[in-house]
Write a structure and sequence with these properties.
The structure is a homodimer. With about 160 residues, chain A is mainly alpha-helical. Chain A has eight helices and three strands, in the order H-H-H-E-H-H-E-E-H-H-H. In chain A, helix 3 packs across helix 5 and helix 4 packs across helix 5. The first copy, chain A, binds a DNA duplex (23 and 23 nucleotides) through helix 5.
Chain lengths: ~160, ~160
DNA sequence: TATTGTTATACTCTATAACTATA
DNA sequence: TATAGTTATAGAGTATAACAATA
């Protein structure tokens, strides 16, 4: 196994086999939202509005399921469906203030690092963050917006 | 957000939002195994044998579901159930040669890093690996065996 | 009496296929 | 004719509860 594979394997182990599953279960119990809905909300929070289809591609599920997920979000007042000004077939999902606030809480819970991170000094943590930042910045899908829809929203005047 | 949170957040983004989902889907299609079964097999491969209950705790699902998962593994010739020599209620799941081989293939597919890792130099990759290694080593659940069952198997003479 | 694993069952999550409206 | 989203439905994934065997 090469160097990058080694590093990525360690990274995966930390991300997946830490307390992530318990965190998700706890969040689900507290918010009464399913894992899919939570994932959609978190994804939505990094967005200025995204069409149903784009959301489906972005989180990797069937478009038909997005209908159910967004129905859930809407029922909880976390998102709304807005018409696309240039294509009346398209609906744009927009996060509400309540949704943004909840997404922030969820994000902060998920970002609590495993206790083992305290094995690193401040200097090492800074190094680690810099290295990871460099990789994330190099990934077009990860840095910033996945699929900017800003134009459409600007055209709507919001 | 603190330094460790920042680093862990980046780490999570790389682990989850890379091509992991597609990889799992591809593996599932190729092997005809469900995600849960694949997860169980990969977990099992880091083991000298593990009881049903320990496996349930380790992958965080209900013990009753482990029955189904291990049934699947056994049906595919990837694992066997062995009696525990000291407690006849307990069954120890042991990976077969075929299982170990498949687990290796799966592991190598999952460990292919996102292309963005090429943004790091060899020196930086080595640094990154060292830092992550240090964290993983500090996590008792991640470094080596989660719950050594070696004694029991030694007692069995294998 | 408590614990390990299994069975039977029901619930949740997600995809497939057919449909409507718009392009 | 092709595409965005929805509906109805079926299938996979997973947990809960009751049970058998052993401790």
């Amino acid at each position: 196994m090469g160097l990058a594979e080694d590093a990525f394997d360690l990274l995966r182990r930390l991300a997946f086999e830490g307390e992530q599953a318990e965190k998700m279960a706890t969040l689900g119990a507290q918010t009464k939202l399913s894992p899919g809905v939570i994932k959609t909300l978190v994804r939505l929070a990094r967005t200025d509005g995204i069409s149903m289809g784009e959301m489906a591609r972005s989180i990797g599920c069937d478009p038909s399921y997005i209908t159910a997920l967004v129905d859930d979000l809407a029922a909880h007042g976390l998102a709304t469906r807005e018409p696309d000004p240039v294509d009346r077939r398209v609906k744009i999902v927009v996060i509400t203030e309540k949704g943004r606030s909840l997404a922030g809480e969820i994000h902060s819970v998920l970002s609590v690092p495993p206790a083992a991170f305290s094995a690193l000094s401040r200097t090492e943590l800074r190094q680690l963050r810099e290295l990871l930042d460099k990789v994330v910045a190099a990934d077009p899908a990860l840095s910033g917006e996945a699929t900017p829809r800003t134009h459409a929203l600007k055209a709507m005047g919001s």
